Amino acid sequence: MNYKISNGKILLTGPDRLETAERDLYILDGRISFGPAGLPEESFEVVDAARHLVMPGLINMHTHAYMTLMRNYADDVGFDEWLFKRVMPVEDTLPLEGAYWGSLLACMEMIRTGTTTFMDMHMFRGQSCRAALESGMRAWIGRGLVGADLYGDGLSRFRQGLEEQAEYECGRIRFTLAPHAIYSCGPKLLEQVAREAADRGMRKQIHLSESDNEVDDALRKYGKTPVALLRDTGFLDEKTILAHCVKMRGDDISIIKEAGSTVVTNPASNAKLGNGFAPLQDFLDAGIQVCLGTDGTCSNNTLNMFREMGLVSLIHKAIHRNPVTAPADTVVRMATANAGRALGLAGELGVIAEGALADLIFLDLDAPSMFPVNNPVSALCYSACGSEVDSVMIDGSFVMRKGEYTSIDAERVRYEVQKVADQYL
Fold first, then answer.
1. What distance in Å separates the CA atoms of residue 100 and residue 385, rounded to the nearest whole number?
2. Is the peptide bond before 179 cis (omega within 30 degrees of 0)?
3. Which residues pair with 5 in a beta bridge?
4. What stretch of H or E contains 276?
5. In what helix (H) or strand (E) does residue 143 lie, and over which residues does it extend?
């Protein structure tokens, strides 16, 4: 189906700032056009976007989708209890089908709150792939890798990831290599992953420097920080996505900058687990590309990127005691255009531009939380809470229209998730 989106306020990504314009958009074969490309007007279904802001879909750059099953399950406890006594016992017993329903619930929540693309690290073969494919979402997915040797104790998970790629990769679903962290993966495995990723043209994702303990343990064991360890194993490059990066020491920031890697900050998760906050302004001052993620719902409780945008701006204004830190324009770009660049789709993903992928969300400008709209960009960061999203288009198709899912049986998902939670939590 081709569409003509009329009467809306369109969010455009200019070279210096985000701006809005009132203009028509045409959607042809899953791409955006500013004209009908020679086709007659009757070739397009007209979508009236009056009193709506049409903007690029949000991109959640760090998730564990299956963890929606453990929402509000391991709160207000220390990290060791959270991980070893709450999370891991569930993960060890959860069946694949349970992870599928949890991942599909994650897709429901992300669509409802305006996220159209997510980067997932998972441990249940094929389940987040199934959920992304069936829900209509766009995703970059990686099987979490652990071990000392990719071709020894790490081989089973590595093979699972490659099997997933062979089975599910398509225009919307792509794959990463995803070693879990430097404390669960040895230097040899990290070197091997770096070579495999380069040979296969794949992106890499990893948790990095999330806590003081992680950094202190690396210094004791290797005599270097986790960032330096990744540099010395050849892991860092422009296709590397680094989740968290809360505890930067020494020349860590300059190492990341030199490698051209992307940092994904997860403010709610880092705060809730008591780890603090990533040095966002230092990253921005260094010219490092920064994106935004929620992490899993067991450490965040939501997958709502509007909540994350508001948090990241307010937190860093408070930290620096400076109201101009992390301005709305910068934060919205972190959740859209920056992520598109990090995924190798600059100008195609996270922006409204000629030829860009038609991943769009429609926000009701008459919603009480948005009205009056004196500054649309500020409203996205400081006012919106996700409930304003009433329609979502991915790859040129509506996955939610006027608040109704078109690709997901929400009632069935709730039923199945509750059944799994009752049995395994």
1. 27
2. no
3. 25, 47
4. none
5. strand 138-145
Per-residue pLDDT, 160: 97
- Could you tell me where the beta strands, DSSP code E, fall in 231-285? 240-244, 262-265
With CA atoms as reference, report the closest residue to 119 among 309, 335, 326, 302.
335
Residue count of the chain, please give it. Answer: 425
Q: Residue 77 — pLDDT band, cuts 50, 70, 90?
A: confident
CA separation (Å) from 234 to 180, 188, 189, 385? 16, 11, 11, 40
Single-letter amino acid code for the residue at 334 = M
* Tokens found for residue 375: 């500054």
Give the DSSP per-residue string, 303-372. Answer: --HHHHHHHHHHHHHHHHT-TTSS-HHHHHHHTTHHHHHHTT-TTTSSS--TT-B--EEEEETTSTTT-S
Q: Are the beta carbons of 47 and 102 closer than 8 angstroms?
A: no
Residue 395 is predicted with a pLDDT of 98
Q: What is the pLDDT of residue 84?
A: 84
Q: What pLDDT band is residue 213 in, cutting at 50, 70 and 90?
A: very high
Number of H helices, E strands in the chain: 16, 19
- Whether residue 224 contacts residue 218, with contact meaning beta carbons closer than 8 Å, is answered with yes
- Is the pTM higher than 0.85? yes
Which among 261, 248, 310, 265 has a CA at the least distance from the CA of 287? 261
Distance (Å, whole) CA 300 – CA 243: 14
In whole angstroms, what is the distance from residue 234 CA to residue 183 CA?
A: 17
Domains and CATH numbers, the chain: 3-57+353-405 (2.30.40.10), 58-342 (3.20.20.140)
User: DSSP letters of 54-111?
Assistant: EEEPEEEEEE-GGGGGGTTTS-SS-HHIIIIIIIHHHHHH--HHHHHHHHHHHHHHHH
- DSSP code at position 147: B
Read off φ and ψ for residue 83, nearest 5 degrees. -80, -55
Classify residue 29 as exposed, middle or buried by CB count within 10 Å of its CB (0-12, 13-18, 19+).
Answer: exposed
